[in-house]
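Before any further analysis, we paired sequence with structure tokens, yielding the entry below:
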Amino acid sequence: MSRLGRGLTALLAACLFYASGTALAHKPSDSYLVLAAATEPGRLEGRWDIALRDLDVALALDADGDGSITWGEVRSRHAEIATYALTRLAMRADGAACRVEAGAQQIDSHTDGAYTVLPLTVTCPAAPTAQKLDIEYRLFADLDPQHRGLLSLTLQPGITRAAVLGPHAAVQSFDAAKPNRWQQWVDYGREGVWHIWIGLDHILFLVSLLLPAVLLLAGRPPRWAPVERFAPAAWEVLRVVTAFTVAHSITLSLATLGIVELPSRAVESVIAASVVLAALNNVWPVVTGRRWAVAFGFGLIHGFGFASVLGDLGLPADALVLALFGFNVGVELGQLAIVAVFLPLAFALRHTALYRKGLLIGGSLVIALLAAIWFVERAFSVKLLGL
């Protein structure tokens, strides 16, 4: 196998490997950390919402193994839950360690299930309202490399910062001074790039549409044959990516601004179904000449998925449009980075059986299988394979 062949195979295999790690999850593992400066200098107050399903993996909360976590099972483990969480969260104000304490736990519901709520009190030797605050976040880092903590931080009245905490950036710093517009744009743009790179359902949908871009159907019965020139392949990719971009930008904006809202479970289920259909179309072609239209149609639904993430991050009221624009640009840059790596390798390998049979047909079947698991779990709220 050539070096290019090994490169493209490794690229697709990496996507499928990480996808398989989340195939059995109803939703990516998230927690919600909200902190705001109190009236007392050097003090922050807030709450930390952590999914019970994630804590069950770490601490085996379901004591009787019946598949349901009861309030009694959670209450009996409150001290252990607090210890587990707080040993994975640290803060420093201007370099000096802060004391983080949790109050009496409660239970709250999010769209994807029940969460334990830890009321937090953070006491720092220096007032974080006037200093740099460092947050070190390592919750579930040893169990789920895709886990993220969605942070909403208010150090000054009316100035809220949003960030994604997790293994990709375990320690982040926040200046209490009002962020400038450029910094806000960069912050949300970075989160957009990160989201598309960990949003494997979005990536696999895009990859499913791009795999046939360097091929065309010819002969009777129709068979995939390589294109002769790079320009037609690049034009096909441009149309697909542009259609997907325009579509999800429309619904991302509508949903973020609160003009249109759809149920989260329905959106995530349809996104999974779109990946199944796009992948199977490579094996049994039905739509052959208008893949850009497929990208546009399903891109409208994917936009609602992006919007749920942006909503979870929290939007600054004084820079709503700026944050929306920055996040959207970040998503596009993340997509273009994937295309920039994928397309040259695919074009170089288009004549090989490895590409036409191994990656196009075999890879598409694996993608369809993983997405089908996503669909069943998201649509019916069940776990497959006993996991």
Observations:
- Confidence is low (pLDDT under 50) at residues 15-26.
